[in-house]
């Protein structure tokens, strides 16, 4: 059959004039709509074979190629989540049918779900990247519509005071408490803490390291271990042969979980994520006088752009100039 039903959705199947077997979902529960799409696809295939028309590639074909070529990305899981959401809006579209009007409709649909501007921008940036790749590298598109991102408001850095940290640690289960203490001592990201292995730790030299393939900046990070970090590490010895942090004998997959969120509620701490422990670490460093360039190296940032978010927390380097705001005395006053 040229069209057939699978569950509640119609599917299309036919053999193109060049011998290719076309099989895909029509993305609709209406038979007439599926038939119209089938006829259009079949006509396009005929024109390509007999008139030499340029192939019109689908969004789904672009997604499959993108995921294949970008499988090495650390954020490929995030890409997959965003593409699953986009599928309901673009699954049956040809790439040249994705116009600025269509993109604006997708943007508004995401906003209507309550998504923040930042979340919408991540989705739009991925969509733009795929369209640009289809145009510049794959030559599947003659032109790419303009994709404008939404404005972002600068937000404050969320960090905890020592008293808040003590309240939180008292509420955390032991395995999360250990990882939180280690994060506050080293500033490492969640994945680098949960995935830390004994092969990455040198107790004698009091240091650890993050390999380039595990670092967000794709550069190796050397991590000095202070007394607090060493104490946490020593408490984990013997619990697992390869991984430092475990729960019930198994490596921890994620720290920002249900137990973490319940502990925040019990501690009376609002608007705080696991990643904000890293912000807390950096904020304390700056307030205690750590130079921004040193903080950049400690945190494994590629440049100072991200570190400058914390610069306002310290004014020590400005103290000698603070008195310059006094009125300037006119030395010639009274000589007229």
Description:
The protein is mostly helical and 336 residues long. It folds into three domains: 3-51, no CATH class; 59-136; 162-319, Intergrase catalytic core (hpI Integrase, Chain A), CATH 1.10.443.10. The chain is built from twelve helices and eight strands. The strands form three sheets. The protein has a three-stranded antiparallel β-sheet, with helices on one face. It has a three-stranded antiparallel β-sheet with strand order 4-5-6. Strand 4 (201-202) and strand 5 form a beta hairpin. It starts with a strand and ends in a 37-residue tail after the last helix.
Rg: 28 Å
Number of strands: 8
In angstroms, what separates the terminal alpha carbons? 106 Å
Low-confidence spans: pLDDT under 50, at least 5 residues? none
Can you identify the CATH class of the largest domain? Answer: Mainly Alpha
CATH fold group of the largest domain: hpI Integrase, Chain A
Overall geometry comes to elongated
Strand fraction equals 5-15%
Secondary-structure-based class equals mainly alpha
- Give the averaged pLDDT, no decimals: 87
Number of helices, where a helix is a run of at least 4 consecutive DSSP H or I residues: 12
**Level-2 CATH architecture of the largest domain:** Orthogonal Bundle
Helix content: 40-55%
